[in-house]
Amino acid sequence: MKCRITCDQINAVVENLNKAITSKYRIRNQALSSMNAADRNTYYRYLREESDNKEGCVFIVEEDIQLFTPMKTDKRFHKIIVILRHCRRLKEIHVSGITRYVIC
Which superkingdom does the taxonomy of this entry point to (predicted)? Predict the structure, then answer.
């Protein structure tokens, strides 16, 4: 593996990405009337991010990863992202200063 990263570390990152995606889209699919102010602000941020992207793509940004998981977005995380990109499990899209990780 690249830089002595084990399969267990890659699987842990994939599990954390899945948790962050489910948390994000749980808020995204929730009714506005049932949200508190913090969730409503997060919901509107998701709408702004999604308006720049193609509809129907499941994506996540680093801010969501930091918000919903205890994982740090350090060098090891970015090396694992490179491995997942190589295996074509996700894509990186850079638009207007935001890096989106699109799940394939």
Answer: Eukaryota
Q: What CATH number is given to the structural domain containing 15?
A: 1.10.10.1890
Q: Which of 17, 20, 12, 32 is nearest to 67 (CA)?
A: 20
* DSSP letter assigned to residue 54: P
57-to-5, 18, 70, 79 alpha-carbon distances in Å: 29, 15, 25, 23
Q: Is the pTM of this model over 0.90?
A: no
Q: How many domains does the chain have?
A: 1
String of DSSP letters for 3-50: GG--HHHHHHHHHHHHHHHHHHHHHHTS-GGG--HHHHHHHHHHHHHH
For residue 52, how many other CB atoms are within 10 A of its CB? 11
Query: Which amino acid makes up residue 49?
Result: E
